[in-house]
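Q: Got a minute? One more chain.
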Amino acid sequence: VVTGISGSGKSSLAFDTIYAEGQRRYMESFSAYARSFIGNMERPDVDKINGLSPVISIEQKTTSKNPRSTVGTTTEIYDFLRLLYARAGEAFSYVTGRKMERQSQDQIIDTILTHYANKKLTLLAPIVRGRKGHYRELFVQIAKLGYAKVRVDGEVQDIVPKMQLDRYKVHDVEIVIDRIVPKPEDRYRLSQSVQTALKQGKGAMQILDEKNHLTYFSQNLMDPESGISYDEPSPNTFSFNSPYGACPVCNGLGVIEEITEESVIPNKALSISRGAIAPLGEYRELWFFREIEVILKKYKLSLTTPVEKYPADLLHALLYGTEDESTMPSKKNPGEDYYNFKFEGVITFL
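A: Always. Here it is, folded:
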């Protein structure tokens, strides 16, 4: 931090000396061929500077108050970091913490022959994962492809005519590709089955052993223990300004705006008529105030009663609404016409 009175040379020290020397040293680290395109930079009027690293400079006039504009985006360093993470980064499972694996078809076959030799295995191709639906047409298509069995929600079943599932429940469906006891002499058959499973499973497959233990394999990034998979990393994955990389909760802003009870009623010593509900202000002839008045009458209270004297259930009803209907007399024909309403609550209204 450089401080000082106006005209003392703060900008000259920061930009003309420190920044200029840091940039000059960074340029000198390039090869002679690269420097021929950049040109020579003059050495600032300084005797010696120790420990100076490469520097960046941001003009104050070009900065924006946009929350999506940061030092990284302004200097474009963020673009290079996104590219670096997308191309050189390693993915880890958020469930188990294990490194995500990507396997070729030959690697999958070698793993099966090594770890599951002479064991009864069922090769599966996942086609539905955690989705609702009856899948009647899907079972017809699977039968037309020549497959006779499917594994539905952990249970192997024969495909029968007019087969369908509960459309309102979440299901997992896998095609039973082959049942095999892996042996080195059966490598060709195993390779054909693995190739078919990966084709039907769009790059993913599963094997089920005798103990009903499921193991996942994938040509994409996948956690072999939990089975979750990631898309191939791209620069957009690491951008908070892209819907593919932004946090779904805060939309990439890093801040969540919420309405709290304290912000709605900052001073409970006031009454509603005196402006206790800050977004509404003082009492006016509005429909919303009339609804509040009807709710208060149920508790034998009025708009002039300080909010601090309200019971907890009434305060909750005012803020978040009521389930029961209330009745309000008409202003034009009092005693004859009535309106039924459900109070939605101040926070819900806002």
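A: The first strand starts at residue 121 and ends at 132.
Q: Perfect, thanks.
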